[in-house]
Amino acid sequence: MQAIIVDHVGGPEVMQLAERPMPTPPGPGEVLVRNHFSGVNYIDTYFRSGLYPAQLPATLGNEASGIVSDIGPDVTEVQVGDHVAYLASQDAYAQYAKTKASRVAKLDTELPLDTAAAVLLQGLTAHTLVTRAHAVSPGDWVLVHAGAGGTGRLLIQLCRHFGATVITTVSSEEKAQIARAAGAHHTIIYTEESVPDAVHMIVPEGVHAVFDGVGKATFEGSLQSLRVEGSMVSFGNSSGAVPPVHLFELSQKNLKLLRPRLYGYLITDEDHRRHVSEVFRLLKEKVIDIHIFNSYDLADAARAHSDLEGRKTTGKLLLRLF
Ligand code: NDP
């Protein structure tokens, strides 16, 4: 099969397309999936660059959709031929991968394989953040950074659905239009304006919660944008890792600070099943929708990473595997 191989950390050029042996047959509780699409997520760039430690050589890729091609003993959840999507463990940039049967999401005919791969990881991230990190409720004011991005668009749609007024940041007017189309009430071009100044012009008390996946460049401004007892949800580092925080900074406004990781909200199969079925329901009811920026050939995975890190993209990037 064809797969991406990274044998040393670095820029996108370290991702090489290679012929690899097929995975071994699925064992008890496992399924083999013929992947059709793999979602490209910002986290993949961290494992490639070395920001997060990866076991090398690595394939990369944390989600995929495809067709079950083999099942191990005792598997009852799915059958050969079923369409599925699943969260992967650094092995989804490949034509085949094995995963746990208890963690695959079976797709019905309403959910195409490209949409399923596009919504899974970012949809679960956005859903767990707005229901568990800070439970968004009617009347909330929220600030969502990078609102035209994959996770940002979904956060805007979900915050609005749960009754919040949404302020979002983007780097260009073109991206502001995409964020407004997703439902943002106010947009700030954070490459040109001070975020806390702009936020306080819109809502003088500040926001109830900030969902910040940008990290280093926005962290301080996010704290300044919060109202008393606000929640700072720092969930990513697209501009670099957030430097160590002085706890005393939180005491000025009795702020809450969270640094959640998606997998920490999906520890049990029941948590996983519940959030996946909610995300799929919200998609079918058109509360959230998917904007696919591009589906790249597997051979162009490096270009997908450089487009994502170059801030050229909006919405979701996919790799096409067949
Ligand atoms: P996005 O589609 O949001 O792409 C990243 C965006 O970040 C860019 O488009 C850009 O938007 C913005 N950005 C701001 N500063 C920079 C910079 N210096 N370099 C590059 N981009 C920058 O990616 P994802 O939706 O995949 O991920 C968004 C964030 O969510 C990431 O930090 C990711 O790690 C995090 N995440 C965390 C999870 C968790 O479990 N904690 C799970 C999933 C995602 P603009 O041009 O508008 O500034």
TrEMBL record:
GO cellular component: cytosol
Domain of life: Eukaryota
Any one Pfam family match given in the protein's UniProt record, by short name: ADH_zinc_N
SMART domains: PKS_ER
InterPro entries: ADH-like_C, ADH-like_N, ER, GroES-like_sf, NAD(P)-bd_dom_sf, QOR-like, Quin_OxRdtase/zeta-crystal_CS
Keywords: NADP, Oxidoreductase
Residues in Enoyl reductase (ER) domain copies: 10-319
MF annotations from Gene Ontology: mRNA 3'-UTR AU-rich region binding; NADPH binding; quinone reductase (NADPH) activity; zinc ion binding
Protein name: Probable quinone oxidoreductase
Protein species of origin: Coemansia spiralis
